[in-house]
Amino acid sequence: MNSEEDSHVVEYIRLFLPSSPHSSVVFYGFYLFPFKMCTRKTLPAEMISRNNFSVWSILKKCIGMELSKIAMPVVFNEPLSFLQRISEYMEHTHLIHKACSLSDSLDRMQVVAAFAVSAVASQWERTGKPFNPLLGETYELIREDDGYRLISEQVSHHPPVSAFHAESLKQEFEFHGSIYPKLKFWGKSVEAEPKGTMTLELLKHKEAYTWTNPMCCVHNIILGKLWIEQYGTVEIVNHSTGDKCVLNFKPCGMFGKELHRVEGHIQDKSKKKRRVIYGKWTECMYSVDPKVYDSYKKSDKKTTGETKKLKQVSDEHSCEGEEADEMPEVQETVTVIPGSALLWRITPRPPHSAEMYNFTSYAMTLNELEPGMDRLLAPTDCRLRPDIRAMENGDIDAASVEKERLEEKQRASRRERSKDEEDWSNRWFQQGTNPHTGAEDWLYTGGYFDRNYTDCPNIY
Ligand SMILES: *[C@@H]1O[C@H](CO)[C@@H](O)[C@H](O)[C@H]1NC(C)=O
Ligand SMILES: *[C@@H]1O[C@H](CO)[C@@H](O)[C@H](O)[C@H]1NC(C)=O
Ligand SMILES: *[C@@H]1O[C@H](CO)[C@@H](O)[C@H](O)[C@H]1NC(C)=O
Ligand SMILES: *[C@@H]1O[C@H](CO)[C@@H](O)[C@H](O)[C@H]1NC(C)=O
């Protein structure tokens, strides 16, 4: 090992030290060191072609069933656990930092809205299925450059529920939630309803925002080109005032005019529109004054001679039906209304992304295992899962064998527990009430970063 690598490992280990008030002082003392952790640009191997596999033979018996009950061949996966996939919500954490820094509450709300959209942008063209986490599986992510750390845990197996908790390294925000990805197979497509609430707390402003992610549909899983659509209404509520932002993720509609489009507004508690938000979840989001927006739309209609009333399509269930759905051509990018302010723009995918499950640069790093890291991670961390590791290395057969072994091990320990009448208890999260919505949620009990993992289950 050369000395450059040495100092890299030392820096890395420093990040993993227990979080006592004293160590965090040391921690920030090293803030300016050039970090090289989790910076790989590609995966170790390209993805394996799925052309030779017939999904139809597996799925034709399962129409209308919940997909979590159907065993799919590993080749349709991507080499990430669902726990790693949800940590992609944090890719645009700079927006949370920005929201924290703004003094005007309306400005904060629109940046939070942009964050909520950006959090689901990594779904674009990602048709690989993440691995189902095993009960007790965890994932941690420390990003000093983005100023946060995150811990997640699979807290329930049936139904599959993943809980996560992210916090700023400087106590500026907390972002947490639990997700039950309810998957339905519709014959030609798979629909995912991400049940569960996202809660963002801006500590300095004593504000909490909550929302639920939009529906997601993967089209043409049997025939034709796979493509992804997100749709539904996302309401971001400021619980201090009852003010909210209503965002409509539009279904693509008959001619694809609405593909990827998101439109909405921020309203105060008297329902007065304060700001219009528009854009595409695959590209960018803008905000504009409602009066400017309305007059622009009026003049736009005049010039295009459009008189027909637009059909209301927002409730259309575009996931059902029998024929293959061609993905409509993307007709235009976002037309910017003069006077709009840019809230967010997507980070372009790296050039080799198409051969690597369409991962973003951020996703490429999530399963990276740095030298020395395995000794510091909890033994339940996804990075130590052998099936995901094998798939990442391009060894699909080993991935299948390992996946089956892990699932059998999980079943065996469930049988053991029921024989001994033992209950499973989660290590880092507890079922409780979300203080802002009053709904049932999973809350972080703390202590993960003290790095005492003696009680962690042996799941791999
Ligand atoms: C998969 O199909 C391609 C042609 O489409 C063929 O060249 C290749 O040998 C096949 N691979 C396997 C493992 O069957
Ligand atoms: C959210 O609630 C806080 C606290 O009451 C309030 O000051 C702020 O105006 C609200 N923000 C928005 C965008 O409604
Ligand atoms: C990646 O995106 C391309 C272009 O849309 C698509 O054809 C392909 O199926 C995607 N691959 C995966 C693994 O999702
Ligand atoms: C770690 O946790 C175990 C059980 O929770 C406890 O018995 C032990 O004392 C702890 N070790 C340290 C070093 O704190």
From TrEMBL:
<dbReference type="InterPro" id="IPR000648">
    <property type="entry name" value="Oxysterol-bd"/>
</dbReference>
<feature type="compositionally biased region" description="Basic and acidic residues">
    <location>
        <begin position="304"/>
        <end position="320"/>
    </location>
</feature>
<feature type="transmembrane region" description="Helical">
    <location>
        <begin position="12"/>
        <end position="33"/>
    </location>
</feature>
<feature type="compositionally biased region" description="Basic and acidic residues">
    <location>
        <begin position="400"/>
        <end position="420"/>
    </location>
</feature>
<keyword id="KW-0812">Transmembrane</keyword>
<protein>
    <recommendedName>
        <fullName>Oxysterol-binding protein</fullName>
    </recommendedName>
</protein>
<keyword id="KW-0445">Lipid transport</keyword>
<dbReference type="GO" id="GO:0097038">
    <property type="term" value="C:perinuclear endoplasmic reticulum"/>
</dbReference>
<dbReference type="GO" id="GO:0006869">
    <property type="term" value="P:lipid transport"/>
</dbReference>
<feature type="region of interest" description="Disordered">
    <location>
        <begin position="304"/>
        <end position="328"/>
    </location>
</feature>
<dbReference type="InterPro" id="IPR018494">
    <property type="entry name" value="Oxysterol-bd_CS"/>
</dbReference>
<comment type="similarity">
    <text>Belongs to the OSBP family.</text>
</comment>
<dbReference type="GO" id="GO:0005886">
    <property type="term" value="C:plasma membrane"/>
</dbReference>
<dbReference type="GO" id="GO:0005829">
    <property type="term" value="C:cytosol"/>
</dbReference>
<feature type="region of interest" description="Disordered">
    <location>
        <begin position="395"/>
        <end position="432"/>
    </location>
</feature>
<dbReference type="Pfam" id="PF01237">
    <property type="entry name" value="Oxysterol_BP"/>
</dbReference>
<keyword id="KW-0813">Transport</keyword>
<keyword id="KW-0446">Lipid-binding</keyword>
<keyword id="KW-0472">Membrane</keyword>
<dbReference type="GO" id="GO:0015485">
    <property type="term" value="F:cholesterol binding"/>
</dbReference>
<dbReference type="InterPro" id="IPR037239">
    <property type="entry name" value="OSBP_sf"/>
</dbReference>
<keyword id="KW-1133">Transmembrane helix</keyword>
